[in-house]
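chain below, 529 aa
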Amino acid sequence: MKHRSLRLFGVPFLAFASLGGSLAACFAVDGSTSAGGFAEASGGNGPVGSVGAGAGEGHGGGFHGGGGGGDLPTEPPPSDPAVPVPSQDAGTDASTEFTCEGLDDSKPVVLYLSADDSNSMGSPVHVRELIHLGLEPMAHEIRTYEFLNYYKIRYQAPPAGELAIFPELANTAVENELDFQIAVRSYDAVEPRRPMTVTFVLDTSGSMGGPGIERERAAVKALAASLSEGDVVNAVTWNTSNNVVLSGHVVTGPNDPKIVALADGLQANGGTDLHSGLVAGYALAEQHYGPGRLNRMVLISDGGANVGQTDADFIGEKSKDADKEGIYLVGVGTGPAGSYEDRLMDIVTDKGRGAYIYLDDPAEAARMFVDRFDETMEVAARGVQVELTMPWYFQMHKFYGEEYSENPEEVEPQHLAPSDAMIFNQVLKACDPAQIVQADTITVRARWKTPLTYLDQETAITTTVGELLSAQKPGLPKAKAIVAFAEALKSGGHQALVDAHALAKAANTQGDDPELLEVLSILEKHPQY
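prediction:
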């Protein structure tokens, strides 16, 4: 039995959950994992399905899923049964030993990889607030790839307009397993940035009272601080009805008084009507759409509204257009964490192709909309897809991205922000360590489209197993510490938390990495540490 802090209808309470349960419950009748991750390895390097997020095991499993978390997903509310539950991880150990028998040594393994959009970063901040409140996060609230987005794994930026690929490989304590990481680094943000049109869709329902409305005000003010003369701002508030409070306002400069006054005047009252807010917001955004401008809708909410299939499809259509850049939706969750359900923001930002961030206090708004403005709002490379070609004797044993497959059609390309990197952290397994040849090659290829002109671009790097093993590892140690941190929070076990703490401490070689120091502090505050 394991103690968990759960939250029902916004009220924290304690429950006891058995660690047992039927493995069959993890799988749908069509042979797919209901929530992705840890797909069972079938052995061999034959065809695979698309493996979902978290830690997928075995490239021969053929299971399909997606997302981040370790518990089984909860069912969607009856009011919107067609809408998928936000991505979650489900984990099982590989039941079939991976051997070389039946493998074709003339056929390399080719996989297509996808991370979630590089600016999806809500999960780690939501979890941070929960732990600071003395609560244990539920496993489905933890999406490991968002931790790799939020905490910076630093690589050298390529020239403007280009992407750079950084593969890293290291031995592990297990003889036939190797830590492998691919970073796809974008160019740094170009200054001055292009003009933007931002449309705020602001939740002012009664549930936003207290911390929610305070964080919403902080988010609007932080964005106001990052705006430039000539930018255009629209705003609509919504509760049981909607109210257009700004339409086509031309910004005078940073901290425009009209936008600051809007933020100060936000009040929480009434019920919730997300649909009318979205309709009014997109109408404003389309009315003031500017070709060549950065067009973004910013939805700020405590997550209390239901999102139906109609809303999800509506958002998806507005985020893409065959002839022009879509109006991407940036989702901002305000909490507070004890009553927050991130299903709303996870769905709308997935459909809206924009960032997902969470504010655990007003200061986080400045961190994301001032210090990391370009990461949160801009796109450097559209539809990034990574192709990995490796020797026949390797399989993908664990994968901490969103999904991978041998079929590129099953892996959805994702956007990459400027001054940012997509991190594909994984564990490779050899069918027999004696088969590993230092001179064998590994190729990583990235394909994408330019943000405005949609021109096809491609870059690739080919190196050998031996060269990778002997090379420096600039990002791998910190990334492994971040992965261990997220996975330990999923398990909630004392030893996993202690082990993650040791790994984070070891990765912080100079003792001055503020993000790793934060990780150590969060682990130490966990109720089971």
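The chain has two domains: 30-189+381-525, 196-377. Residues 196-377 form a domain with the Rossmann fold fold (CATH 3.40.50.410).
thats it, cya
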